[in-house]
Amino acid sequence: MKLATSLALSSVIHQGLAILDSKAILSKYFGNDAPWYQDRIPLFESSDADLTDTYYYRWSIFRAHQRDLGAYGFISTEFLNDVSWQTKPWASLNDATGFHLLEARWCRDRRFKEDYANFMYSKDSNRRQFSESMASAVWDGYLVDGSVSDVTKRLDAMQVVYEAWKDSYDTSKGLYWVEPLRDATEYTISSIDASGGLDGFTGGEAFRPTINSYQYANARAIANIAALKGGLDSTVSTYNSRAEALKQRVQDALWNSTFEHFIDRFKVNNQNVTYWNFIRGRELAGMVPWTHDLPDDKVEYAQAWSHVLNSSQLSGPAGLRTGEPSYQYYMRQYRYEGKNPECQWNGPVWPFQYTQVLSGLANFLDHYPNGTQTGVITPKDYTAMLRKYAKLHRNPSTGILDLEEDYHPDTGLPIVGLKRSHHYFHSGFNDLIISGLVGLRPSASDILVVNPLFDPSTITYFRAERIPYHGHTIAIQWDASGSHYGSRGLVIEIDDDNPVISQPTASRISIPLPRKPAPAPFTTRIAKSIQLNTTVPFPRGMASVANSTSNTYAAIDGRVWFFDTQDAANGWEAPVATTTTTTTTNDAAEMWFEIDFGQQVSVGSAEIAFFQSKSQGFAAPTQYRVQVLGQGGSWGDVEGAMYAEVVANGITEAEWKSVQSQKVRLVFTPVVGEKVRLVEFKVF
Questions:
Q1: Which of 106, 348, 580, 593 has its C-alpha lying 20 to 30 A from 134's C-alpha?
Q2: 122-418: what fold?
């Protein structure tokens, strides 16, 4: 992983147009793991090194959080490793699913978003754990790839999830309410004040702009998908009516003209707070209605954006505050894990809401003409906010790109900083680059709309290419002077056989674009080796050394990443090897890792991931081979083996003649004086 230093990306000139050198770029950012990204991600570069570095780092986060569940396919996780409140044994959480799907819609391998959506709408997922915008995100995926069957097949499940929220709907107010903790935002004004300022982790139920915006967006998505499927006029009418009713109630009841902001009203009624009263301050959550295009385009509502820019209100030196300094309990720390501060939303910067605000701002700048004409906020502000968000990804103490849970708004330093916090996938970024800064605005119609949102005095050039859209491959380029790419202005390329569209200004352009069929997902083998958690009896791992379930589980849990920090360690670790020949002690010249499937299975190939880090003392083995347990109970090398050379911090491929066995073993020779970390031994 090569993400600690800004890199000068290389371009070549081809027929007058700049083409990014994918091999060089991916090698620089991902090292030996570059093949995973090669045919999957759009390429991007810009004159701002932080934006470029963060873009590729965010794809490494995406890659790290694709957990293989075996027959269930892939899901996106929120934390790198297991946490107690995840849905077991899968390790799923639904609060950030919307972000995960929006990032995944730009991945050329559609399997990740499709497997994930299938799982999240299944009965094995905890679909009600947190408030969510899953249906809306699935629809937004359709706007990119145009695959009708991918969205219509989930229509029934979407309605089941939507209707389940009736228990949180107040018919007298026409609004949904939620406990802030279930809104994934503990310690808000409503929960702290409901406790009398004593706590705020639980309680504080409120009618919030967040959940009502999510339900508005989900209702619109269900109506759109039903219309797409056809023959469901009643469903279309029902959900459009629900969306419209929510829209009006949010605007009528949650807009506070004094604060010029959408804010909570209390659902809870106790000695500290009163039912239906407004909370006593602005929160960043009040900008979420624009994330989902809920507000009407009125000058009155547009004034809310002024508070996002005000340094004494929601704009902190290092990022957007979740609450304002004027609040009595702003940044008061209530909750700890030992001596470490825990998660709170009473002022800290959260990438979660940063993403929502920037998504909403892109919507506002793109199609709210009355609001934008006020000049209350501009593309220059979008650029500044996006750049500040990008900088948040790099820890100022270590200089390493490592996104964590929340940050101090004055310093940009992580607040929580627990082991679970590193490389946290609880937000989006690359969707903001592609649909915001670069400006590809996905549509259900057969058009390509490009409306870049950036400050030309700050961003002098950028290029994004290999972007999937409606079955086409799109490239979008800006060069203020023409000195970087050899072509001045905005350039749009569609596939390889279409003329280039160009214009001198970075302004909105709409191009008719008949859609092609969406590409099929990559054909992916089903892994048979995945142990979903340590309590699942089979498959299970054993090893010649460090042989405990807690150790071996990490090498067969379906997770692959190569972050070079000890806090992000992943896999089974063997101690330092010496030159003796014993195979059952710490001094093994040859070591092994075994998988017991619990029954006879057919195995014929493997993907093997070894970690290497000079600073941590890990090296990939010098050689390896695969063995299976024969019917007589003895181990033997597989027949017809084709072993690729060992790849450190990447995937080593192995194939052999398919064979039935209950157990398979990876035997390897470590480097003398070095430790070995087996990140994953995935068997097919």
A1: 348
A2: Glycosyltransferase (1.50.10)
